[in-house]
Design the sequence.
C-alpha cells in the first residue's frame, strides 16, 4: 500500500531538535536521507546504548529517531563534501536543518542560498529562536528553550526551583509543528509549483503550551502570574478575587505502588455520592458520609479534610486497583504511568501501539514505540531500523546524483 509521502525526497541536515520531525515524515513513506558527520562530538554522545556497546550504531536514541531513514556520511568542512551536499539539495524535495543564523551563513546554507540551489525546495529550519530576532545567534538546548518558554516556571513544587520537563519536550513540540508545516508546504507546492520556507522557533512552540491554557487569561485579566503548585490544582491560591475563598481539591495522590491523578474539579453534578460510595467500599469514608457534605459549599470549606481522606484511601491500594474501581463508578481517577506501565497498558496493546522491528545484524527483534495515530489507506509503518552511519552513502550518490 502506498504511504502518504511516498516519492518525496527529504534531506535531513538537522540535530536532535529536528530528529523527530524527519522521523514522522520517514514513517509516512518519505525517503529521508540523514547527513551525518562521524567526527562531530555530539554525534558520539547519544546514549543509552544497546548492551552498553558505546558505538553510535548501537545508540538506542539513534535507533528510535532514525527508523526508515538512510545515512550519508559527509564532513562539509571538506569542499568536496560541501559540493556533494549542495548537489543533494538540488535533487531534494525537502531540506531540514537546525542551524542558527550565523551557522547557516558560515556554511553558505542561508535560506536565500538554499533557495538559489533549488527554487522548488521546501526548506524547513528549526531553531531555538527565529532568524529575524535578536536571539537568532544564540545556541540552545532543550532545557534553555523550555526555560525561556515559561514552562519551567510552572513545573514543580512551590518551595523548589523551576523543574525541567522530561523527554526533550521542547524539541518534540518544535518537530511536530515543523512536520505539519513541511507537509502543508509540500501540498502547496503540488498546487502552485512554488517552493516554501518553513521557519520554526522552538521557544515559540513551547511558549504556546504555557500561554494557550488559562495561564494567559489569568495574567491578562487578573494580573496573576501563575507559579508552581506541586500536588495541588494549578490555580490553588492563585485565582481571581472571586475565587479567593474557594478551596481546590488536590490533583495527585500517592498509592501503594506509585501515583494517581484525581480530576475532582471536573466531576459532574451528583458525583459526590459515587465518590463516597467508592470510599465506603473500602471503609475509607471516615466522616464523609455525613449528609452535611452533600452541600457543595460545605465541601469547599472542608476541602483540605477531604484531601486527607483521599490521601489515606489511596495509600491502601495500588494504582490499578484505584483506577479500575473508580472508573466503574465514573470517578475521574487515572494512574500516572511509568515506562514499564506503558509497555503493559491494555489500551496501547489493544491499539497495536508497539512495533517489533527485526535487526538483521543482531538477528533479533527490538520493540519500538509506534505512531500516535492510525491511517488505514496510507498506513504508518516502520519498514527498516536506523541505518548504520554512512551505510547508504554510495547508494544515494548513485540514485540521486548518478555518481
Sequence:
Amino acid at each position: 500500500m502506498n504511504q502518504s509521502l511516498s516519492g518525496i525526497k527529504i534531506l535531513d541536515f538537522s540535530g536532535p531538535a529536528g530528529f523527530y520531525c524527519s522521523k514522522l515524515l520517514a514513517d509516512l513513506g518519505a525517503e529521508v536521507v540523514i547527513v551525518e558527520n562521524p567526527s562531530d562530538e555530539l554525534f558520539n554522545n547519544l546514549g543509552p546504548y544497546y548492551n552498553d556497546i558505546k558505538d553510535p550504531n548501537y545508540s538506542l536514541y539513534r535507533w528510535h529517531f532514525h527508523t526508515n531513514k538512510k545515512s550519508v556520511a559527509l564532513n562539509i568542512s571538506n569542499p568536496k563534501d560541501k559540493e556533494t551536499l549542495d548537489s543533494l539539495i538540488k535533487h531534494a524535495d525537502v531540506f531540514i536543518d537546525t542551524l542558527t543564523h550565523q551557522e547557516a551563513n558560515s556554511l553558505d546554507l542561508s535560506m536565500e542560498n538554499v533557495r538559489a540551489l533549488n527554487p522548488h525546495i521546501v526548506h524547513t529550519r528549526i531553531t531555538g529562536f527565529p532568524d529575524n530576532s535578536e536571539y537568532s545567534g544564540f545556541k540552545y538546548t532543550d532545557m534553555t528553550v523550555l526555560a525561556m518558554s515559561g514552562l519551567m516556571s510552572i513545573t514543580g513544587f512551590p518551595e523548589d526551583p523551576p523543574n525541567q520537563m522530561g523527554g526533550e519536550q521542547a524539541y518534540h513540540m518544535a518537530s511536530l509543528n515543523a512536520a505539519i508545516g513541511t507537509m502543508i508546504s509540500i501540498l502547496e507546492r503540488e498546487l502552485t509549483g512554488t517552493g516554501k520556507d518553513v521557519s520554526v522557533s522552538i521557544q515559540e512552540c513551547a511558549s504556546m503550551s504555557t500561554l494557550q491554557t488559562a495561564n494567559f487569561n489569568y495574567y491578562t485579566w487578573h494580573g496573576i502570574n501563575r507559579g508552581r503548585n506541586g500536588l495541588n490544582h494549578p490555580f490553588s491560591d492563585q485565582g481571581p478575587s472571586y475565587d479567593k475563598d474557594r478551596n481546590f481539591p488536590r490533583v495527585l495522590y500517592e498509592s501503594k505502588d506509585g501515583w494517581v491523578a484525581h480530576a475532582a474539579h471536573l466531576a459532574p453534578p451528583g458525583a459526590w455520592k459515587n465518590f463516597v460510595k467508592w470510599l465506603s467500599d473500602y471503609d475509607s469514608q471516615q466522616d464523609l458520609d455525613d449528609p452535611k457534605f452533600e452541600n457543595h459549599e460545605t465541601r469547599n470549606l472542608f476541602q483540605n479534610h477531604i484531601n486527607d481522606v483521599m490521601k489515606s484511601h489511596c495509600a491502601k491500594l495500588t494504582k490499578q486497583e484505584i483506577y479500575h474501581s473508580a472508573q466503574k463508578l465514573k470517578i475521574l481517577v487515572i494512574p500516572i504511568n511509568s515506562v514499564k506501565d506503558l509497555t503493559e497498558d491494555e489500551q496501547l496493546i489493544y491499539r497495536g501501539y508497539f512495533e517489533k522491528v527485526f535487526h538483521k545484524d543482531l538477528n533479533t527483534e527490538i520493540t519500538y514505540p509506534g505512531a500516535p495515530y492510525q491511517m488505514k489507506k496510507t498506513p504508518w509503518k516502520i519498514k527498516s531500523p536506523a541505518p548504520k552511519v554512512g551505510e547508504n552513502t554510495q547508494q544515494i550518490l548513485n540514485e540521486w546524483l548518478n555518481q
In short: The first strand starts at residue 9 and ends at 13.
